Amino acid sequence: MKIAVVAANGRVAQKVVKEAQERGFDVTAFAREDENKSGAATYIKKDIMDLTKEDLAGFEAVVDGFGAWKDEEQPMHVKTSQHLCDILSGTGTRLLIVGGAGSLYVNPEHTVVVCDGPDFPSEFMPLAKAQGEELAKLRDRNDVNWTFISPAGDFQADGERSGKYILAGEELTLNSKGESIISYADYAIAMVDEIEKGNHIQQRISVVRE
């Protein structure tokens, strides 16, 4: 399977590249830096906003690994994913987006999300709001085979690769220990599983460590 990973030098994207290549996928990484930190065998220096329809032609799936932490950069979550939607519009290529947990629902009516809670850390609020808006904009797109994958609340960069996870939906899901936790490595497994055999087209799904 031939896939592209954009913003590929990010830490989550690196794990996705590694997982995909270990399964024998043909991975092309795109990032704006000179240095290839992604681990991909094929690396193309190109900013996500400069990508064209021609750049992404022929890939079965595109993974959007974009992430921003500075408050002033948060609008780029919507801009980058919508740009990818525009250039993949009307194609059969899947677009899989590394999402956030702040927009997961915490009630059956789907009217309250995680970041609405009184204990949600204020420093993560701009990011949560931006990714929530990103998801809302994706829901308006019926011309793209997108999938938005939210991690658990405790998203651990250096957590172990257990190889086990629970695939869930729109609501914050806890494991048998009452935890909302997943490592980047296990998230990458779930992402590549979705590319390989998933069919959650135009849906948001979530993952938590088993």
UniProtKB/TrEMBL annotation:
Location of the NAD(P)-binding domain: 8-193
GO molecular function, one term: oxidoreductase activity, acting on the CH-NH group of donors, NAD or NADP as acceptor
A Pfam family this chain is assigned to: NAD_binding_10
Source superkingdom: Bacteria
CDD domains associated with the record: BVR-B_like_SDR_a
Name the UniProt record assigns to this protein: NAD(P)-binding domain-containing protein
